[in-house]
Predict the structure of DUF1797 domain-containing protein.
Amino acid sequence: MSQLAGIIQRLKSLQEGGENGEVQQRLFEVNGKTLCQVKFFPGKDTFELEVYDKDGKGNKYPFDDIDMTAIEIFELLQEEKQQ
């Protein structure tokens, strides 16, 4: 399975877990370093991507499309692996 397909599968599990109305969240890491956290808000049917910088501070970005969310996460993971 490609890395992008795995990311999409994790995001879909957030959507499925949110069917009970609770906000779901997942962390994405590379080599033990947390790069971002994704939350799914079922009431709004949106994702929130919080990207952590090197100081551990987060910037939040909303997405209403699972594919765009997955692409952003994929790019973050690829950038970290190249460093």
